[in-house]
Amino acid sequence: MPTAVQSFAVQSFAQRVRQEAAGLTGLKRTALEIVQINVGKLCNQACLHCHVDAGPKRTEIMDRRTAELALDLTRAANAQTVDITGGAPELNASFRFLVEQTRRDGRHVIDRCNLTVLFEPGQEDLAEFLTEQRVEIIASLPCYSEENVTAQRGQGVYDKSIQALLRFNALGYGQEGSGLLLNLVYNPVGTHLPPPQDQLEADYKRELGQRFGISFNSLYTITNMPIARFAHSLEREGKLAAYMQLLVTSFNPSTLDNLMCRHLVSVSWDGYLFDCDFNQMLNLRLGNGRPLRLGDQSADDLVQQLVGQDIRLDSHCYGCTAGAGSSCGGALAE
User: Fold this and answer.
1) Are 86 and 310 in contact (CB under 8 A)?
2) Which pLDDT does position 15 carry in this prediction?
3) Which of 70, 108, 119, 144 could be stapled to 207 by a disulfide with Cβ–Cβ 3.0 to 4.6 Å?
4) Quick check: 323 and 193 in contact, CB under 8 A?
5) Is 87 left (phi over 0), alpha (psi -120 to 50) or beta?
6) Which residues of 274-292 are buried (b: 16+ CB within 10 A; e: fewer)?
């Protein structure tokens, strides 16, 4: 079945790559440096732009056995980074297990944190745990403006986010020389591409610094993907076709070398493997005829199949290649 965005793409993404990207016939995974683990869709928020369609009532949650298998894959690949996402990943009962085991293995851990989770019951010591484990925090703060954050995430989220950032700063995060990385994520409000990342980072640092005394390391701009909740919102407002056309006409071939899918694999809450978290939400599973799933074969065998494998492309990929590009690590080109 075609995805919601396919009918609006005049030309398939794969065709566009072949036409404009120096004769490339497709995209392949060149390495396996990052294992991104989506531990489920349970979240204490239900954000308008969320491509996961996460929320407080979602029941898709990774169990301990699948978490253990994800760690086996990481070891077999010798991936240096484990990127833990959700939902609110910290609400998963295996989150701290994943962090502790990965750090014990000497690998880097990223926690994709929505900040307000620090105020959820049972998370009173979360900030201290992340500090002790020296976890990199990539925190979503759609704007330094309270009005824009409220429009995307609801009443009260902005104040809690600011309090969480201040708490992280007090523990050393975002402070020069601490080695505790605190990075923020910007998502546009509405149907436009992010502004230049460097310029926006300077704006964030000025505004948050002057108003609250908050410091952080870097800002990542991420394009809103036309899938799941955001796509449904655009459809209701009659804006999906125009937004898709913006992504298509903004295609930038210089982003292709740095696409995250070329050095990453995404693990779903139920153990299936995907090229990225976006493909995961569209159920574009890896595997030729038989989907690749943790536990169905050895981790070593899975790794051999993943490196050099063709990336599954679809029209939503225009979102990662529009303008300066977009990835879990922000913009991809100047």
Assistant:
1) no
2) 84
3) 144
4) yes
5) left
6) bbbbbbbbbebbbeeeeeb
CA-only gyration radius of the chain, Å: 19
The residue type found at 30 is T
Q: d(Cα 286, Cα 292) in Å, to the nearest integer?
A: 6
Give the model's pLDDT for residue 66. 98
Tokens of 166: 């201040």
Q: Which of 34-48, 142-156, 308-322 comes out lowest in average pLDDT?
A: 142-156
User: If residue 167 lies in a helix (H) or strand (E), which one and from where to where?
Assistant: helix 157-170
Give the Cα separation of 59 and 54 in Å (integer).
10
Q: Which of 27-41, 140-154, 243-257, 279-293 has the lowest mean pLDDT?
A: 140-154
**239 contacts: CB under 8 Å, gap ≥ 6:** 191
Residue ranges per structural domain of the chain: 6-321
Closest by CA to 85, choosing from 266, 312, 295, is 266
Q: Given this model, what pLDDT does residue 19 score?
A: 79
**pLDDT value of residue 77:** 97
87: preceding bond cis by omega (within 30 degrees): yes
Closest by CA to 332, choosing from 226, 250, 273, is 250
Dump the DSSP string for 231-248: HHHHHHTT-HHHHHHHHH
Per-residue model confidence (pLDDT) at position 178: 96
Encoded amino acid at 217, one letter: N
Which residue matches tokens 């300077």?
202
**Length of the chain counted residue by residue:** 334
